[in-house]
């Protein structure tokens, strides 16, 4: 049977800082029966909050150029980053609804022999896996449930991130922005336990340019989230966004440089596709877990993989 195809939008953070997330996503989707097609010539999405707030027309034009690449290929877009999803999906929504804006964008794109037609949709990995693939199919692919050697499920704290859930009138997630459940269910489909914790839907701290402008302020958010996760008994955290991933992974190193009061221990960080890769029987090195700033070995040891 021919594999279904999706255009794979890489974004900036993943290929430059966490290529293991890209590798894991490609391997997981291949196992699920999908081929991820490269988007040759794609640029930054560009970043939705900051860029769009300063200059909406330039932001939407750059996003439309990316969308036109997928239209040329003839396949919907898959993103594994909340920011990329937020930018491309919202731009797609605006351009389909606003004739005047679409005309402006296409006038600019015509200068480089491109045109936005509105013929593709943008999918986030969380929503796509939950709605299009389905929890049951993911469960069937699990070869090595995320259970510790004592038979107990690995305790995982999920982080949704902001642009996946909001603005709710534009995102295609079935989740309530105040009480999401999709990522929790996807984690438990792998044999792990999703633990509830205080301020679960709070921002990681990185978004809106805060990490770039006020690193210490952004790390206050991160430190609080990590502490809340650990207090709930989490043995690792998982996310569906490389920027959130960077904030939790690199951020735990940076906290040591800025704060005296620190979480009682480090918390390993996984993108969901890396956790899925482990459950699907893939080797930890193949998923590039050794490249993370925070050592994933404690989790791998509990799973009998190290």
Textual characterization of the structure:
There is one protein chain. This protein folds into 2 domains: 4-125, Glutathione S-transferase Yfyf (Class Pi), Chain A, domain 2 (Up-down Bundle), CATH 1.20.1050; 145-302, Rossmann fold (3-Layer(aba) Sandwich). The protein is 49% helix and 10% strand. The chain has 15 helices and 8 strands. Strands 2-1-3-4 form a 4-stranded parallel sheet. A 4-stranded parallel sheet has the order 6-5-7-8, with helices on both faces. The longest helix has 18 residues, at 56-73.
Q: How do the helices and strands line up, and which of them pair or pack?
A:
Layout: E1 4-9, H1 13-17, H2 19-31, E2 34-38, H3 48-54, H4 56-73, E3 77-79, H5 82-97, H6 99-109, E4 122-124, H7 125-133, H8 135-141, E5 155-159, H9 162-165, H10 182-188, E6 193-194, H11 210-213, H12 215-231, E7 236-239, H13 242-258, E8 269-271, H14 272-279, H15 297-302
Parallel strand pairs: 1-2, 1-3, 3-4, 5-6, 5-7, 7-8
Helix pairs in contact: 2-14, 3-4, 4-5, 4-6, 5-6, 7-8, 7-10, 12-13
């Amino acid at each position: 049977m021919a594999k279904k195809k999706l255009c794979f939008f890489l974004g900036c953070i993943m290929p430059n800082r966490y290529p293991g997330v890209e590798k894991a996503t490609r391997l997981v989707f291949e196992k699920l029966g999908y081929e991820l097609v490269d988007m040759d010539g794609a640029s930054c999405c560009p970043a939705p909050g900051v860029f769009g707030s300063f200059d909406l027309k330039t932001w939407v034009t750059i996003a439309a150029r990316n969308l036109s690449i997928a239209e040329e290929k003839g396949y919907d877009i898959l993103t594994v980053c909340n920011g990329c999803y937020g930018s491309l999906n919202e731009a797609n929504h605006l351009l389909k609804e606003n004739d005047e804006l679409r005309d402006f964008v296409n006038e600019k794109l015509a200068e480089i022999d491109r045109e936005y037609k509105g013929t593709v949709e943008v999918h986030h990995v969380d929503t796509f896996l939950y709605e299009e693939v389905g929890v049951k199919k993911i469960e069937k692919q699990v070869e090595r449930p995320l259970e510790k050697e004592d038979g107990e499920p690995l305790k995982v704290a999920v982080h949704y991130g902001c642009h996946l859930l909001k603005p709710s009138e534009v995102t295609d997630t079935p989740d309530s922005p105040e009480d999401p459940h999709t990522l929790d269910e996807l984690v438990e489909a792998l044999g792990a336990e999703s633990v509830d914790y205080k301020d679960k839907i709070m921002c990681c701290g990185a978004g809106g340019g805060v990490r770039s402008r006020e690193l210490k302020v952004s790390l206050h958010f991160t430190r609080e989230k990590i502490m809340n996760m650990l207090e709930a008994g989490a043995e690792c955290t998982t996310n569906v966004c490389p920027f959130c991933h960077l904030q939790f992974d690199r951020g735990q190193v940076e906290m040591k440089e800025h704060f005296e009061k620190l979480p009682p221990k480090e918390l390993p960080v996984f993108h969901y596709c890396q956790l899925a890769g482990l459950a699907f029987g893939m080797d930890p090195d193949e998923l590039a877990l050794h490249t993370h700033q925070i050592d994933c070995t404690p989790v791998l040891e509990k799973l009998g993989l190290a």
